[in-house]
Protein: Potassium channel family protein
Organism: Methylobacillus methanolivorans
Amino acid sequence: MRAPLITVIVSYTIAIVGLTLMPGADHQGNPWHMSLFEAFYVISYTATTIGFGEVPFPYSDAQRLWMTFSIYFTVIPWFYAIGKIISLFQDPALKQALTTNSFARAVDHLHEPFFIVSGYGETGSLLVKALDHKGIRVVVTEMNQDRVNDLELEDYQFDIPVLCADAKMPDTLLRAGVRHPMCKGIAALTDNDHVNLAVAVAAKLLNPDLMVLARAEDDEVAANMASFGTDHILNPYTLFGDQLGMEVHAIGTYLLHKWLTGVPGDTLTLPKVPPIGKWIICGYGRFGKAVVENLEREQITTVVIEADPELTHCENCIVGSGTEAATLTEAGIEDAVGIIAGTNNDINNLSIVMTAQKMNPNLFVVVRKNRRFNEPLFEHFNADISMDPSDIIAHECLARMITPMMTHFLKLVRTQDNSWANQLISRLVGVVGENVPDAWGVTVDAEHSPAVANLIAWGLPVTLDALTRDPGNRTQKLDLVPLMLVRSGEYTLLPEVTEKLHVGDRLLFCGSAMAKSIQPITLSNHKTLTWIINGREIADGWLWRWMTRKITRLRKSRKPASQ
């Protein structure tokens, strides 16, 4: 804008000075010249095309001639300046700068916990939708402007700050709030492992205490992420392989895992149990390798069909894509119990299972979905198990973001037998029904549960049972189940309700949304907690609390003497 502004200033100066030099006459006919202020006033309403008239006296011919010149001389620079302003606001660099500043201000003004999601693709969009549904704030960075436009058109309950920028750049992460005191974590969910690696490394360097979740399908990239302290490295193929192995060997453990990582409120559907026998795996890429490893771990025979054995390093396989009947026959489709179409092409996967089912209608079918826009095709086919990498990663991220303790709980669940998992499922169904429960953590300290911490400090024992009671009716149990107790680094699964709580304990609960919303009353109000424990109401005052502490100490000091 430097040249347009100089042009306007110069044209105004010439017009104003020239007008003061033009001779005129007042009402008595005396010679008169405009002052600089009067000339500036006249040129101002003339150059802006407002128009007002000849003031304060009628103009002479010389003045009118100069005004005619000034009209053309000053209006043209205005048009030039306005055109420059319009073109400036259409400049991509300026628009990006304005958008970036607006995004940074929106993040700075967040006063509640939020997560950063890098990548608004299929996985990122699912995670953002789930977090928004849970009432958790989200900040998004995405390189693709079309995806940014898609987010802005979505009907979310919160305004989600989004920036079209490269998340690998430290400035982008800083603007997204990686050092913001309310930022609870970042999820790197782009479709490029190296971008996710760069985001994870940069986030850990900028804020070492921040929880970082990253998607990685390559083992070398995953190892690099681990070396920088990435908290959760998620490989959809490994996760699915583990889940498939659980379905074959321990359906109860799988069902419990699926239930506790699902979206709260969704109805739990019973999965189909994969049969034990010979399985045919089409595609020996990263997905195929993970599936074969887990199936063979369960002592299941596998036959691999691979179109490019040299590329995938498949030493013992049948060469082919699996879409041909001859290849399936060579693999022994007639006596197989299941087939897994795991290539990176959705159309090929559908073709594989259609051909295989014609040859063996009793096959158990597992099909891999690579793109969500092909969902209608897979729904029409109705496979026994559909593997959606985006859905798997989104659910795993959701579980780790909302309840970080759930990760440790699920790891410990894998060490239990299937009957233990079935008993827990029966207990959960009896408490919360067949809908996916909410899960939450509780820390026993003055900040998160002041009532519990205060009573323990006053010498009054508080058991886990008190936290499971309804604060409105102490004889009623809340619809929740204590899943785990963490004390001094030791993990206890399904702790007894008679367990006495200590300051510093961490508890993992799951239950109904109502129970989750009611329990904080007990945790924060010592009057309510005392009433739940012994059925007595206490006065709420510092004098009464002082007297209670004195009486408690006196009783403790006299107890040995009486004994």
The CA atoms of residues 132 and 156 lie 7 Å apart.
